[in-house]
């Protein structure tokens, strides 16, 4: 649905040229929800604004639904943009217009008749749960309701693609969850392709099918969310997802483990489970098979889009050869075994 080919973007800054994006190649499939994460300044907003040419790339091509937007003239580009809706962190509503008239605006601009607009906007307001609020003004709405207006407005031109730039970053966690549920519903019902950029990893974890990690204007890692979040390859990815994946050891436990006698002669390991290995009784079987005592110190099981994963911090005691055999046995069962360090 979306193809970015060799996208580079320079900005003219006061201290010279800033290269915000460097040779981005990316393919986003029809109907998927694709997330882009990265630190502040990584180029996320620039990248998403290049998809509808709000920013024109310095180099490269942007294909949406098979059409190269970078070669279109102004009129053709305006038409092509109807296939791409966008929502923003601060909603960008017109305060002097009602809910209905905010959603109607893009349709007025293309000269649609009032009755056709009525026919288009009314079901959209129902879809986003604002059927009863059509006559209200933005100042009378909560943040979540404002973003619902933003979503309805973005959908007014019946786009194939919805771009979301930090769309839930100004909302509290509960409102965020309801907006994410709405986006998922729209994605399923309308088959819309959704591109999400956010610094909130929970949003990616709850909403997206695939994710790309942007750093210094380059994509450093991408894949399906489950793989990237449970087996991050790059140090930056590990840092970004740390808070939502919950492999952190509680500080009190770390302190106790740093007492020399506790870990004496024992091996401290972190075991990462995913998919089937999460459900299997591997630890009890391991104790039976090998002469190894396992003391579970800390653990967590979670799921991403219905697929379970988890980690256990264990202290294992036994002969070195038995321990090695036990770790190898776990690795054969898709459990990743890492030496855990206590600082
Ligand atoms: N309009 C602009 N003019 C000059 N530099 C810009 C402009 N917009 C963004 N930048 C720079 O480009 C880089 C990427 O910015 P941005 O895409 O906003 O990153 P993010 O959304 O990941 O925080 C940053 O170094 C930023 O300062
Ligand atoms: Mg940004």
TrEMBL record:
Any matching Pfam family: NIL
Gene Ontology cellular component annotations, sorted alphabetically: plasma membrane
Matching SMART domains: AAA, NIL
Ranges where the ABC transporter domain occurs: 2-241
GO biological process: amino acid transport
Keywords: Amino-acid transport, ATP-binding, Cell membrane, Membrane, Nucleotide-binding, Translocase, Transport
GO molecular-function term, one example from the UniProt record: ATP binding
InterPro entries: AAA+_ATPase, ABC_transporter-like_ATP-bd, ABC_transporter-like_CS, ACT-like_dom_sf, MetN_ABC, MetN_ABC_transporter-like, NIL_domain, P-loop_NTPase
Domain of life: Bacteria
Name listed for the protein in its UniProt record: Cell division ATP-binding protein FtsE
Membership in a protein family: Belongs to the ABC transporter superfamily.
Organism: Rhodocyclus tenuis (Rhodospirillum tenue)
Protein role: Part of the ABC transporter FtsEX involved in cellular division. Important for assembly or stability of the septal ring.
């Amino acid at each position: 649905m979306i193809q970015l080919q060799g996208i580079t973007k320079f900005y003219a800054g006061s201290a010279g040229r800033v290269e915000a994006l460097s040779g981005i190649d990316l393919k986003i499939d029809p109907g998927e929800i694709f997330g882009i994460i990265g630190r502040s300044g990584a180029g996320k907003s620039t990248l998403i604004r290049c998809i509808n040419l709000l920013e024109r790339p310095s180099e490269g091509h942007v294909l949406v639904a098979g059409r190269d937007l970078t070669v279109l003239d102004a009129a053709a580009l305006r038409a092509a943009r109807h296939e791409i809706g966008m929502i923003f962190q601060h909603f960008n509503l017109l305060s002097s217009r009602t809910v209905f008239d905010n959603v109607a605006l893009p349709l007025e601009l293309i000269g649609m008749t009032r009755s056709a607009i009525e026919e288009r906007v009314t079901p959209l307001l129902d879809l986003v749960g604002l059927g009863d609020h059509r006559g209200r003004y933005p100042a009378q709405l909560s943040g979540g309701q404002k973003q619902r207006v933003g979503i309805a407005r973005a959908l007014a031109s019946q786009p194939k693609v919805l771009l979301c730039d930090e769309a839930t970053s100004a909302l509290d966690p509960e409102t965020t969850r309801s907006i994410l549920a709405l986006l998922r519903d729209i994605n399923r019902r309308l088959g819309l392709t959704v591109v999400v950029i956010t610094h909130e990893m929970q949003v990616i974890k709850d909403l997206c099918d695939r994710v790309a990690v942007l750093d210094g204007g380059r994509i450093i890692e991408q894949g399906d969310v489950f793989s990237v979040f449970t087996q991050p390859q790059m140090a930056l990815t590990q840092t970004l997802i740390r808070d939502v994946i919950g492999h952190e050891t509680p500080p009190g436990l770390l302190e106790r483990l740093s007492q020399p006698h506790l870990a004496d002669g024992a091996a401290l390991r972190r075991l990462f489970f995913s998919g089937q290995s999460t459900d299997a009784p591997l630890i009890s079987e391991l104790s039976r098979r090998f002469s190894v005592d396992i003391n579970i110190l800390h653990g967590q099981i979670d799921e991403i889009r219905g697929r379970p994963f988890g980690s256990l911090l264990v202290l294992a005691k036994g002969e070195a050869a038995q321990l090695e055999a036990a770790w190898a046995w776990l690795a054969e069962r898709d459990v990743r075994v890492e030496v855990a360090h206590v600082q």
